Amino acid sequence: MRKYLFFILICTFLFPGILYLLYSNSLENEQKTTKTSVQTKVIEKKLSKKSEKVEDKNISTPKRDIASIKPKNIFNQREVIGSYNRHEPLKFANAISKDWKDKFQSNLVRNLKTEDYKDINIELKNSLIKVNKNVGVFIEHILVTIHRPDGSPFSYEAHIDSQTGSMIQSWNKTKYEFKNKLKLNPTGRGVRLPAES
Length: 197
Prior knowledge:
The protein contains three helices and eight strands. By secondary structure, the chain is of the alpha/beta class. Strands 1, 2, 3, 4, 5 and 6 form a six-stranded mixed sheet that branches. The longest helix has about 55 residues, at about 1-60.
């Protein structure tokens, strides 16, 4: 009795499974044939349009001047941060200025005292486009190194607005450790020792 019950259960599940596989394979074959026929029709239409264009090009057309050549694609020159809809035109909140570095350096020097620095180096690391809600902002990623009069360097990285030269964000600032040793007393408060000579 158990053998028959086991046989009936296997047939109940195995038979519909086999039918499903056969039916799904036949549907896939039908879909492939319809896709290929549609693709061949599209290719034929494209070829007929190209042949019409070729016939039109044989008619004398004026050549383009150098001034009418489109500028380089800005997305090939800059890294894009953020996501945007590629089917809609991207709007920009600012423009690219060639003297952004001079503007940033003049703002930086204006905010520093002359005795606080000996030399300032600004190194361009990357040019970016930061996108938020389909609005792009041209940004420059830089490394700023300020050499102090005592010889200790101070540096940080920043994002700079490409049009105004103003700082948007900064990070990786140099932090110095205590030069004097710190000795703890039994009360838990730190006591500084004089620097060793």
